[in-house]
Structure formats: structure tokens, C-alpha cells
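Here we describe the complex-level prediction in full. Unlike the single-chain runs in Section 2.1, the two entities below were treated as one system.
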Amino acid sequence: MFRFVLTRVSLVIPTFIGVTLLTFALIRLVPGDPIELLVGERGIDPARHAMLRAEMGLDKPLLVQYGIYIWDVLQGDLGRSVVSRKPVLDEFLTLFPATIELGTCAIIIAILLGLPAGILAATRRGKVFDHTVMGVSLTGYSMPIFWWAILLILLFSVKLGWTPVSGRISVMFWVEPVTGFMLIDSYLSGEPGALRSAVSHLVLPSLVLATIPLAVIARMTRSAMLEVLSEDYVRTARAKGLSPLRVTWVHALRNALIPVVTVIGLQVGVLLTGAILTETIFAWPGVGRWLIVAVGKRDYPTLQGGVLLVACTVIFVSLLVDILYGVINPRISRTR
Amino acid sequence: MNVETNVPEAAAELKAVQSADAPPHPLVEFWNYFRVNRGAVGGLVVISLICLIAVFADVIAPHPPNHLYTDSFLTPPFWAEGGSTRFILGTDDIGRDILSRLMHGARLSLSVGIIVVTLSLSAGIILGLIAGFFRGVVEIGIMRAIDIMLALPALLLAIVIVAVLGPSLTNAMVAVAIVVLPHYVRLTRAAVINELSKDYVTASKVSGARMIRLMVITVLPNCAAPLIVQATLGFSTAILDAAALGFLGLGAQPPTPEWGTMLSNALQFIQSAWWVVTFPGLAILITVLAFNLLGDGLRDALDPKLKR
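The structure predicted for the assembly as a whole is:
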């Protein structure tokens, strides 16, 4: 097991180096001079320009520059935003919990709805329920989620007035950011109605973000279940006289879950992509919206650092899923 | 005597047997599998319709896409109160006919699909063939680069590329083409490696086929099935991603009637003019859904495992 974890971790290192090369190249590929990009649109006098160039090591060979970059990154120095002048890492860390909160709620919704829908569709193969689930999930999979978000706002916020349109909590509440997770913080604040307000702000964005993972999980569960249900051991279980419920939910489900768990792990990237759009529409103060704002303001250090951090998150989570997968399914960790 | 009379009979029998068992032309066989799938046929019909609309947009669109009718801002669709058949789906905030813009947008979305799929498919096939044929360092290099691209969420990578190149429809297409590249490389490589172990490839090698011939003429056609499916599904990804970039203001720029761009400032009309907000998204959904249905149908029809 230890060997397995070690191989997995060692495989991640080249990917990490590759991503740093990409973000390192990013700021040098942007047309224009890096210094001018860093100071923004205010302009700079030539003497100060040359001094900054030397200070930042931009007069050194590229390889040395990359070495300095990597060294800084490993120490947690990802540069400063040219707009807010704050370190990129600090900004990321204050905003990241909002994205995690949204993403976690979305994936929970997706699993809670997608898994049973897929299982029931498989057991009712070819029936109306199966066709409905498949049709709905293909539609969800094809959905431009930014438009889906607008539709939901139109229905639930504008027409019905059930949910607020943007933000994480009503402006009437001021909640001490203890954990950064609004659900927990608003609960801890003890103010009556704060938690309720936080939940109502969270519902629509997480539904929107859950749409595509939900569709993928439902489809995957259905096909995995269909495959398992046709296997011999399931027939044996049926022949023994076990109840259909027990055969489906206990015997078949356990094996069908293996590919489903992988697919759920792969949704992290999908969630982060979705978060960019969802957060932009709902004015959700998370990492996705932060990156879009950075692009709009040509805040390249923020974009550079943010992209690296998001990529590291994806790499880390996939590594975690890989290892967990080996724990759940010992056949894998033993064969490698 | 007996033998002589039997010969024509036997020949006829043989012919009958042959005609009964002769495999149908591959295309006919494919169509027989494909047409069973009603969803896929429906998708094909919808796509053909959208293609027709795109090609004849100039002729069938009731108004020019960028013409401002200053007498009718935010006119509702004809069935709603205050609407008229002059603007069937209503007008937007500066008095442009939405239906005409959607029709011209079909042209853009389909071109985005065609260009992105062509770019990524051809680059993906070349890289995949190289990785599959020349194992070792070359393969490791290509596949590692692919892994790095996959470590970034697709839309984020596209945003980074657009941030470097500058926002425009062309750059958005380039960005999306780069982002979807890994899937084609992986598919081609896997299919090539699978084919290379087969006897016909060895036979071709032994008879002296050169590397290029082996790659392009011998092996590639046998890898086509998964690539065709992926390319069809690639249309929907390309259209969705380009629309998302347009929505974020990083793709086609106003006043281009691109569907995603049409939605980018629509949020402000959500209270007052629902038609500005709903129709462009519906157009995206229908197109993407049609391509996904078609892709699923093609997969079922082309997948030898599922046959019979």
C-alpha cells in the first residue's frame, strides 16, 4: 500500500512541473512587457523600469528566471495582484472556502439525486422511467449552464421570489468569518435567520453547478448497474431467493459503485469549470469569479497564481481519488 | 450425366447461398443500426435543419441581424401582449430582431464547431499516430504534455489562452481547439496501439510498407470509428465552450450575433424582457442536444461490441 501511494505521488511531480512551466510561460507570452503588465496602466519611467527589471530578475536567462519562479512558488510566494496589491495566495485562501462550499453542496446534490436515479433507471430498463431519466440527463449534459442559471433566476427569484439573486448572505447580517464556510459561520454567529439566509443564497447556485455532474453520475450509474445486473453472481443471488431490493441495493450496487466513484472524482474539474460560470452569474465571491475579474482587469499576476493554484487543487484531488480508489478496490493497489 | 445436370443447379444454389449471406455494404449495415435509434435520427434531422438555416440565413432571416429598429426597443414575441408578427421572437434592447440574430448565430456556432473539430481532430490524429507508432521518449513526451493540459479545468485553460491572445471569436476557437485536443490524442493513440498488434499490420510491414503508408493508409482507417463519435460529440463541446467564452465576454464581441455573446448582457433584462434571455440559450441547448443525440447514436451503431 505504501509503495502504491509513493508511485502515485511520484507520478504527480512531472505534471506539477509542467503546470508551473505553463503559468511561467503565461506572463511572458502576453503581448507587451512584463513590467508594464505588472504596474498596470499607469506607466513608468525608464530608470525605474530598468531597476525593476533587474530587481525581478528579468534580465537573467530564462532558465534562471524559471528557477527563481519555482523557488518562490515552493515558498508560497505567488506574486501580488496589480489591482489590490495583496499577495495572490492570501486572496486565493480567503475566496477558496466559498468555492469549496458551493462545490461540495453541488456534488452532494448530484450524488443524492443521480445515484438513485441511475439505479432505478437500470432496474426499469426500457420503461418510461428509464427513458425519462436518460432524456433528462442528456438534456442536463447538453445544458449551457450559464443560461440554465438565468432561467432558474427568472423562475425562482423573479417570478416566485423564493430565493435571492446574488451573494452568499443577506446584507442585513454581518457574520464573523471563522471558517470561511458561510453555512458554518452563520450558524456559529447565533443570529436568528442568518443560517436560513445563507441556505437560501446557496440553493440556486449549487443546483446550477450540480446539473452536469448529476447528469454524468446518473448515466454512469445506470450503465454500470446494467453491466453488473447481467453478471452470474447476481443471477445466483436471485436464484437463492433473495429479495429484488436486496439484490439491487446490496449485491449489485457495491460492484457498480467502482466506476461511479471514479466518475465522481473526475467531476472536480467539471465543478471548477462550472464554478467560473456559476460564480460569475450569482456574484458568488469565490475563486472562479475572482479569475474572471482578473482577466477583465488584465491582472496577470493574479491570473498566473490563480491558475497554478486551481491546477494544483485538481492534481491534488485526483491524486486523492486515485489513492482512495486503491483503498476501496484492493485489486488495483496490488497489481501495480 | 447426373453430374452434368447437377452443375447448374449447384451453381444456382451456391449463388443463392452467397446472396443470402453476402454482407451488406458497410454503409447500409451502419444505416440499419443507426436508424433504429430514434433519438439519433431526430438529432440528425435537427442538425440538418440548423445547417439549412445557417446556409440560407441571408435569405430566410426576416431582418438584417445588426439593423437597429429605433422605433421598437424590447418588443415582445408575437404571441405575447404588445408583440407583433413583424418581430416574431421580439427585439432586444437596441431594437434588433432576435429571430434574425439567432439565424445568423447558427452560422457562427456551426462554423465554430466545424473549425474547432477540424483543427483539434487533425492535430490530435497526427500527435496520436506519432505517440502510438514511436513508443518511448516521444510517446512519453506527448502523453505527459496531454496530462498537464488535463490537469487544468477545460474552460480555465481556454480562458488563459484567450487572456494571452486577446478576446475574439477566432481566438476563442483556437483556445477551444487546444483545450479539446487531449481527447483526440488519447483516443487515436489507444486505437493505434490496439491495431498495431494485429496481423494485417504485420503483413503490411513484411511486404515493405513504409512508415507513412502504414500510419495513414493501413492503420488510420481502422481507428476511425471512435474518432468519428468523438468528433460528433466534439461539436457540442465546441459550441458550448465557445458560447461560454462569449458569455464571459472573452469570445465573439458585440455586435456579433453569437448565441453566447447575445446572453452576456442579458442578465439586466431578466426582470423586464424574458425573451431576450431565453431564446439564445434555447438555441444553444437544442443544437448541443442534437449533436449529443447524434453522437450517442453513432457510438451505438459503430461499436462492434454492441452489435447483435
